[in-house]
Specification:
- With 198 residues, the chain is α+β, with helices and mostly antiparallel strands.
- It has 3 domains: 83 residues, Arc Repressor Mutant, subunit A (Orthogonal Bundle); 51 residues, no CATH class; 32 residues.
- Helices cover 43% and strands 16% of the residues.
- It contains 6 helices and 5 strands, in the order βααβααβββαα.
- The protein has a 3-stranded antiparallel β-sheet.
- The chain is elongated, with a radius of gyration of 23 Å.
- It starts with a strand and ends in a 28-residue tail after the last helix.
């Protein structure tokens, strides 16, 4: 089972986003039969079977063996991943493209960059799986609380200068065996936690 599966096929995305099928994908972190799922979700077994077939058609669930239940054999199913992300590329020409956004400081540009990362990672996941190699990646996730907008601006300037210096030092356009890596750094305010009603 993959940790994350990126869905880029529009039909598979539509199948996965159905509320009942979303529940089934969550329930199938562990193998289960249609009868067991029907009991958990309070649905008729025939309806669960219908949804499982749709998910299997799009390779979102797969058989995980059989078990004897009374005089019947039940097929066990499992999700193909622990979690799923729908790639913006599933939207085709309507997907966001950072090249179409002139304002590099806008929230729209940040979202377009994040969308491009998901689309590119999908292709890289596929290639790594075919070659049986681990995909080298780097990610940093931290929270910085700025005292003021001026501090945020100073941090941004220093971070930009530091990254530009590192890129200059390590980038070698003439390296015959080198491989380009995309480095994206972005920041955004954290959402406020919902206020509790008194």
């Amino acid at each position: 089972m993959d940790a994350v599966q990126i869905i880029d096929d529009p039909a598979a995305a539509a199948a996965a986003l159905d509320p009942v099928r979303t529940r089934l994908l969550a329930e199938l972190a562990e193998p289960a039969s249609a009868a067991a799922l029907a009991a958990r979700l309070g649905l008729p077994r025939q309806k669960v079977n219908y949804h499982l077939r749709a998910l299997e058609t799009h390779r979102l669930v797969e058989p995980a063996g059989e078990r004897q239940w009374g005089g019947l054999k039940e097929r066990l199913m499992t999700a193909t991943a622990k979690s799923y992300v729908v790639s913006p590329s599933a939207l085709g020409p309507a997907s966001p493209d950072p090249r179409s956004t002139a304002d590099r400081l806008s929230a729209g540009y940040l979202v377009a960059l994040a969308a491009r990362v998901i689309s590119e990672m999908h292709e890289l996941f596929r290639r790594a799986a075919k070659s049986g190699k681990r995909l080298p990646a780097l990610s940093i996730d931290t929270v910085v609380r700025f005292r003021s907008a001026a501090d945020r601006a100073a941090f941004t300037e220093e971070l930009t200068h530091t990254i530009a210096g590192l890129a200059t030092r390590y980038h070698d356009a003439s390296a015959p065996d080198g491989r380009d890596h995309r480095l994206i750094v972005f920041g955004h305010p954290l959402p406020h936690p919902p206020q509790e009603k008194v």
